[in-house]
Design brief:
2 domains, 35% helix, 11 helices, Dihydrodipicolinate Reductase, domain 2
């Protein structure tokens, strides 16, 4: 008996689609049946290149146009890595065509636009989910257990997170993330979506009471109508006294760290978005002790490392594979999960508030 699989279509030939081609290939419950680009030739070229590395038994069909792919009856779900500036139209059209939607981030140009997208999916009875891969890592469940155990860090007081990379000159002059029509949030959308999501996840998706954003630098490529954020920071506070900060930048070298601090200890790790290559993911718990004995003073580390055996880089156990495996399982079950669109909306809302605060130069209270 042939196992039922989720049949995927991909809208566009963005670089991230190559990584997710492998993820679908490794998932065990999914296949790619079609890929659309602006021309059949470009779609066929992309498919041939990916098939050479990870070949599906039945090669996906090359489709010359996104609308044509949505009309196919051999596609259950679509992955949409198109630029944010045009994403709303295609998410809504996909939903109206009865296709479940995996949406790249940032999901929309505003929370109002994302609400329209989610509403379209609800009305069509299809699943909506954003493409934040680390949400599907086994490390996250262990992190939650540690935060909530009451012993490792005690009461949470402070969240700090940072995700950056130093963009080369050609990126700043050519990349779509430097065009305000295509990616108006710049580094805040590209990188801040991850840091905001991490903060909200840590807080069990409680929204902050106030948000204060600061635009540290902005720039646009030559054809951009306006500059986009290239260096951005924000602070926010929650009702229970927890405070949080984040920093995102296209101007500083790669960093992707978390520091969660309580009244008894702290948790740190430095690869929360893209795990370093290897066969396990981990985080550290620190409960340092300072001791003085006469003239002798010592700061004792007292560190524990929590590890999970989970390969990176497209392996069957990797977070990106889990993302598509979990989404495909929802599609195959026929039972939609409202958690995923809900947390996308909250992430978008906080991102909007961060940018609004930076533009008006004031703290915004919710």
């Amino acid at each position: 008996m042939t196992q039922k699989v989720c049949r995927w279509g991909i809208l566009g030939s963005a670089g991230i689609a190559r990584k997710n081609w492998q993820s679908i290939f490794r998932s065990g419950n999914a296949t790619i049946t079609a890929l659309a680009s602006r021309s059949v030739d470009r779609a066929a070229e992309f498919i041939a290149e990916c098939q050479a590395e990870f070949p599906f038994v039945a090669p996906p069909a090359a489709v010359g146009g996104y609308a044509e792919l949505l009309e196919r009856d051999d596609v259950d779900a679509v992955y949409i890595p198109l630029p944010t500036g045009i994403r709303k139209e295609w998410v809504i059209r996909a939903a109206q065509a009865g296709k479940h939607v995996m949406c790249e981030k940032p999901c929309a140009n505003s929370a109002a636009d994302l609400q329209d997208m989610v509403d379209a999916c609800d009305q069509a009875g299809v699943q909506f989910m954003d493409g934040v891969m680390y949400m599907h890592s086994a490390r996250m469940s262990k992190l939650r257990e540690t935060i909530d155990d009451g012993r490792s860090i005690g009461d949470l007081r402070r969240i700090q997170t940072q995700f950056t990379f130093c963009a080369p000159p050609e990126f700043l002059q050519e990349n779509i993330r430097m065009n305000s029509d295509l990616e108006s949030y710049g580094c805040l959308g590209d990188l801040g979506w991850y840091t905001i999501r991490l903060i909200l996840w840590t807080m069990n998706f409680e929204l902050p009471k106030w948000v204060s954003g600061r635009m540290l630098a902005s720039q646009g490529r030559p054809d951009s109508p306006d500059g986009v954020p290239t260096e951005f920071s924000a602070e926010m506070g929650f009702a229970n006294g927890v405070s949080a900060s984040m920093y995102n930048s296209f101007r500083t070298e790669n960093s992707q760290w978390i520091h969660l601090c309580g009244d008894r200890g702290s948790i740190t790790f430095d690869d929360f978005v893209l795990p370093y290559y290897g066969n396990q993911v981990e985080f550290n718990i620190d409960n340092p002790v300072f001791r003085m004995d006469g003239c002798q003073s010592n700061m004792e580390r007292h560190r524990r490392t929590i590890s999970t055996y989970e390969y990176s880089n497209g392996h069957a156990s990797a977070q990106e594979t889990n993302l598509f495996r979990n989404f495909s399982a929802i599609v195959l079950s026929g039972k939609l999960d409202p958690y995923w669109p809900e947390i996308s909306l909250k992430t978008q809302q906080v991102m909007d508030l961060c940018l609004q605060s930076a533009r008006i130069g004031k703290t915004i209270e919710l």
